[in-house]
Fold this protein.
Amino acid sequence: MEKTGTVSVLVVNDQSLQRLALRMLLTAEPGLTVVGEAADGDEAIRASAALRPDVVLMDSHLSRADGIDTIRRLARPAQRTRTPGFAGEEASAPRVLVLTAAGQEADAWAALRAGAGGFLLDDADPAELTAAIRVVAAGDAVITPGLTRALIDAVRLQHTVRPLPRTSGLGALTRRERDVLVAVASGWSNAEIAQWLSIAPTTVKTHVSNVLAKIGARARVQAVTFAYESGLIRPAA
């Protein structure tokens, strides 16, 4: 969903001072507006259903189980329990941007599987944060190169990745689309993939969009999960 106007943000953080600081920072930024705050997962679900933000900015310091479940319910509204007062309405899913601490790659991986659309280290500067919110609101993925590599390394150390059924979408990919998916899962940018395959970056973007549609992923980062869980890429022993 591409945004051309003001981007609305819901701030989720269990620390009141941090929520206040984020609100002040984002409110001062042209084109961004904070429509609400939440201190925990249940509050976040209710606020998202009522306020319909474009982006949920969520801190990963929430307890792991609560945080992952919250991301899943935010990113996949069809799986939510209906909220009183919204019966009959089709909930639109916000994009979830997670602020994560360095060294928490395992939690970031779980959040990715739950449907998070982007990750940013919690020590990012204000310009990085506001830019990331805009990118996620436009429907693209945000994940720092360092965290991408850390996530990939974490997955490669796992020994229990089980291939998904053939009906999961892998069989629908062309050979070129599989090549593109492998490259995406390796952390390559569109420009790097274009150079490797000797095609235009715009063609790469089209391939990536087709791959996401065929495997049922909402964002580029979910394609990394799919590539490993489908068995297309095998974790290192």
Q: What stands out?
A: The two ends are 39 Å apart (CA to CA). The longest strand covers residues 32-38. DSSP finds ten helices and six strands in the chain. The first helix runs from residue 16 to 27.
